[in-house]
């Protein structure tokens, strides 16, 4: 019968915030642009890897492709995943303001 001889553990949690966007500047992806209309950010809490608290993952921003005049093309949606340091200022401000306050405790 196998026997566990080196038992360890850590806690891990995820907290996701999502919402709609109004009046944001278009985002360019290669040669196309989309108008941000949705976003989400997930925060991770890992007591083993990141013992200081919640940290954001990539920010997911998406919206309809637009033409040169800013009108939706009807060709689907664009999407980018950005680290907070490369995201638009409005997204960075949101990420900073919405960090979860719940603390995890090892048992």
From TrEMBL:
It comes from the Bacteria. This is Uncharacterized protein. It comes from Actinoplanes oblitus.
């Amino acid at each position: 019968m196998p026997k566990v001889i080196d038992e360890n553990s850590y806690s891990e949690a995820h907290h996701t915030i999502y919402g709609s966007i109004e009046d944001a500047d278009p985002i360019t992806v290669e040669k196309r642009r989309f108008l941000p209309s949705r976003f989400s950010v997930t925060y991770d809490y890992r007591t083993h890897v990141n013992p200081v608290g919640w940290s954001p993952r990539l920010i997911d921003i998406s919206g309809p492709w637009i033409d040169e005049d800013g009108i939706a093309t009807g060709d689907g949606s664009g999407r980018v995943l950005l680290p907070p340091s490369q995201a638009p200022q409005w997204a960075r401000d949101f990420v900073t303001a919405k960090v979860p306050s719940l603390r995890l405790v090892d048992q």
